[in-house]
Amino acid sequence: MQTVLPYIISGISVGGQYALIAIGYTMVYGILRLINFAHGDVFMVAGLIMVYLAASLPLYVAIPLVILLTVLLGFTIERVAYKPLRTAPRMSVMISAIGVSYLLQNLALYITGGLNKNYPQIPWISDRISILGMETTRVTVITPFLTILLVVLLVLLINHTKIGMAMRAVSLDFEVSQLMGVQINTVISVTFVIGTFLAAVGSILFFTNYPGVVPTSGAMPGLKAFVAAVFGGIGSIPGAVIGAFIIGIAESIIKGLDTILIVNGAITEQIGLATFSDAFTFVLLIIILVFKPTGLFGEKTADKV
Amino acid sequence: MKKLVSIALALILVFALCSIGYADNPVVKIGVFEPQSGDNGAGGKQEVLGMQYANYLTPTVEIDGVEYDVELVYADNASSNDKAPTAAQTLISSGVSVVLGSYGSGVSIAASDTFDAAGVPAIGVTCTNPQVTAGCDVYFRICFLDPFQGTVLANFAKSELGATKAYCLAKQGDDYSGGLCNYFIEAFGADNCVYEQFPDGTSDYSTYITNAQNQGCDVFFSPVSTEAAAQIIAKANTQALGMPILAGDTWDSNVILAAAKGTDLQICVTTFYQEGADAEFDAGIKEWINSDATALANNGGNDELAAVTVMGFDAYYMALEALKAAGSTDPADVLEVLPGVTYEGVTGAIAFDEIGDALRDSAFVKSCNTETGVWDFVSVATVG
């Protein structure tokens, strides 16, 4: 157990970060039926904003400002790149999302010059602590709890407020809810605001743990979070969170599987399983899409004729 | 009126072109084939700095009695093996006489066929994988090779650090780190090594640190890109790695120094040049870096010298020597004389063997002083 524990703790932490990004994917999909490919890059931009702001401002100003600016970015992207395409075929919006993704990556490349930017150390949460005989950072332990707290708040918001009801209505039927007087643009904007808010929080936790921001930093976490959202059933918030934790833990254990087996005496030689950690995630995506396309908690939909 | 304006504009354009055409000296172009972005962007930029400084000191060269202006032509290979041939083609199309680079062996190997087909000679600056020059007639290099470097590091781990079991970490599909790990394992003994690879896009290195600790290793060998290195150092620190970290020439960079400062880690690297070996040169280049804001940013914000910068400096003069010896700007003529060109550089005497590799038999071992954030000289290592 002592051997496996560090992998599980690091996996839960990674899973929590994936979860915060995955919620953004799943909420936007639930409402717009759009896979927002720019979401991972918004996450990266949040990291870069922090790097530049923390260079000149104290952290207690920089952190709220990062969240605010990221939310503003998410809101602007929706208004500029997706809203004019509201009546266009879904494919056009998706292509627009891919365009935004490349735009953000290349803007970041232009601004940073392609160099790795060191993420600022946030005191207290990036301190080293010892837990159950293993050394890690405090943020590793905080992440899963913060994630779950935010998710509970989000679920309460969706189930018990007026805007939450409007969101559920829009996700159920876009046009009918419009006819019933739901302000569709407001609802969609709120969705993007919440999604990017969580991505900004996720980015602070992620980059505190893995302190280096490059223009492609958002690509891999974004892709993994997307897989998590599909795995959990895209459109379902608890599904996305559980999917993210499963993927985070599984990846971490696979990376250490050789070592775990050797220490426990199951094998005597390296067999190179660590190489397959990413492959596992994407094979999982294929298996889910083939055998249970709606995911773990996904709604069953019958095609309307 | 409109016509008049457009005629005036056209005339201005023509005059502008004429003024370019009547520059006082003819121009010879040297291609700079280096990563400016991606994993190795930081290292590539530092290597280019050396060339730019050399170009600043010696902006002209006399070829066959005619004074030429030297123009550096840049192409970003983006640290990516599939973008490297395109970048190489860009340089060839712009008519360069000789190419310098690249930082990172993978991109050099990927582009070698393109240079070969065009017959344009290339001088590798710090690409240490043997395959860069093997089987390619146009590729030369001025640095030592990985079989040598791997052996030096393995010997150092055994005799100086007293290590008995090594953890080796490379990036999957990366010719530099994978190759260097293999040569290290060969010299250290495969039975005493744990070898693992991480995929592209990895950000969580904590599990690899845990693997090394759980398997009871006593040295951590990871000659990966500086970007991954910064993350590995951060994780090694927070997880109390408890063993020395060893790496090759890429880690001789102020990125590593910045990441390691204030930690309690022991980090040793092998490299091409030790700061202080040529005080006059060091002072000159530092003054230049500090006077140029872009150069300072490209060097990571301080004037700590990276060995790759000094190698880039020597490579530029090697190219000038080759142009002088060829007496022509035609790539074919440069290629013909290049094997015989020698130069006494800041990093030592440079001459090529029959494959096109530099005849070098010593490497500097340095360790990171985590209190002051500078490199401390340890020893000069040779292989018997």
CATH hierarchy: architecture of chain A: Orthogonal Bundle
How large a portion of the residues of chain A is in β-strands, by DSSP E? under 5%
Largest Cβ-defined interface: A-B, 44 and 43 residues
Distance, first to last CA of chain B: 82 Å
**CATH H-tier superfamily of the largest domain in chain B:** Response regulator
Percent of residues in β-strands of chain B: 15-25%
The percent of residues in helical segments of chain A reads 55-70%
Chain-averaged pLDDT of chain B: 88
CATH architecture assignment name of the largest domain in chain B: 3-Layer(aba) Sandwich
Give the beta-strand count of chain A: 2
Taken from the alpha-carbon principal axes, the silhouette of chain B is: globular
Report the end-to-end length of chain A measured between terminal Cα atoms: 54 Å
Q: What is the CATH first-level class name of chain A?
A: Mainly Alpha
Q: Work out the radius of gyration of chain B.
A: 22 Å
State the CATH class of the largest domain in chain B: Alpha Beta
Helix content of chain B: 40-55%
CATH-defined fold name of the largest domain in chain B:
Rossmann fold
Q: Which residues of chain A form runs of ≥5 with pLDDT under 50?
A: none
